[in-house]
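pasting for ref
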Amino acid sequence: MMDRDVYVVGVGIHRFGKHDISRRDMAYTAGIDALEDAGLSFRDVGALYTAYIGGNMLDGVTYAKDLGLTGIPVVHVENASATGSSAFRLAVNDVSGGVTDVAMALGFDGQLRGLSTPAAVAPRPTMGSNLLPAAFFAFWAVRRMHDNGTTMETYAKIAAKNWNHARFNKYAERQAQNEITPETVLAAPMIAYPHTAMMACGAGAGAAGAIVATREIAEKLSNGRPLVKVAASQMQSEVYQPGHIFLGAVVGPSESTRITANLAYAEAGLGPKDLSLVHVHDAFPIEELMYYELLGICGDGEGDGLVAEGATTIGGRIPFSTDGGLIGRGHPGGPTGLAQIWDITQQLRGESGQRQVENARIGLAHMMGAGSVCVVHILKREER
């Protein structure tokens, strides 16, 4: 439970994708955009959490100098795919706990490469030292097909949806000129059955940032826009259970998502039916499909029905990955969770253009870190 109410007052982003722009320049662009969106200068920020997976350990403090030399605490956060979400949570905690009235999280990374541990440095032989993340997700997807009768067409529909959402996000890595169909997704090269290349997340570079502040400051900065409250911020690591899977990277125990989401719902005083839109760690369609159920959007085994209904598209009753998600927008690593906050904040303000969810009031952002850490934030629109 938060000691003080916390609000998102500024968000910024640099286009995700495979390009030659330096990580430093991307971080600067996203940081300045967040400050300008908030109507603040870097002198107003009381703490900065930099979020990145690749690069040098000094990059965070070095890039912060481009924003200003103001003497504030600067901390590098690294937590696998949940790096950006973890940095955002730390900024929220600083404001909630009274450490500072304004805090910033800034994520940036170059192209995300394989996350497996090289066999030469692994302490002992593990599955993680020999299998790419795509293979872990493939195991999960095939198991779902065996247990629930899920088809490749269902996975293709989820991927096509996210590619199409990304078409209207100018910051997304994947911007198809024409509408993507499930048939197009299925026709792409197979990388790890049942996943084709178009079902895999984009892995280019990018940057994103978010600034949080007290209600008093948020009201002063609102300039007529709705306030965006951080209604819940929860993080959990995996808990041992019978039949525990120690694969670690990527999949992890599914109950982590269910537990963390329930804690977030309780903190926010609402439930799955209250959500207007959702972002999840959708590196492959199997993840999004499973998270429909683990987040309580539908019952166990009912996710396939949501896909068939079209419920999770923009215009459906509970849109997922409205900016394209990891599959369409991309997944550089450090900025990924902050890009979710960027999109939800814009949605709740009504600033998303062709991607706008009608009457968006509450958004949930979910990220997993190496399958072992789960972070869930709930943002809520407040009218002034």
